[in-house]
Amino acid sequence: MRGNMNNMMKQMQKMQKKMMKAQEELHEMTFEASAGGGMVTVIANGKKEITDVQIKEEVVDPDDIEMLQDLIIAATNDVLNQVDEKSNETMGQFTKGLNMPGMF
């Protein structure tokens, strides 16, 4: 019984190290999304931090600021969804098969 517990603890420690490494790799990734046919591009890292916003000059219309705002929102939401999907894919491999509600 005691040997099983020690073995289980070692396995949990290994999994924790793998999870931490996977999370570090995720945080270093770059994600990019565009809207308006590339008129607005938003770049984020795996920590969900926006690192760059690129706006093409021709989309800047003082008479239609709302369109530019919509394009920025669309590209930002898209890039953040990409980060979420990759995070779920990356971290989900560790929680698959574990039935521990509320743990992750």
UniProtKB/TrEMBL annotation:
Pfam families from the UniProt entry: YbaB_DNA_bd
Q: Where in the cell is it found?
A: Cytoplasm, Nucleoid
Task: Give me the ranges of the annotated region Disordered.
Answer: 1-23
Task: Supply the name of the protein.
Answer: Nucleoid-associated protein ACFSBH_02965
UniProt KW keywords: Cytoplasm, DNA-binding
- Subunit record text: Homodimer.
Superkingdom of the source species? Bacteria
Tell me its family.
Belongs to the YbaB/EbfC family.
Q: Where does this protein have compositionally biased stretches of type Low complexity? A: 1-14
Q: What does this protein do?
A: Binds to DNA and alters its conformation. May be involved in regulation of gene expression, nucleoid organization and DNA protection.
Listed PANTHER family: NUCLEOID-ASSOCIATED PROTEIN YBAB
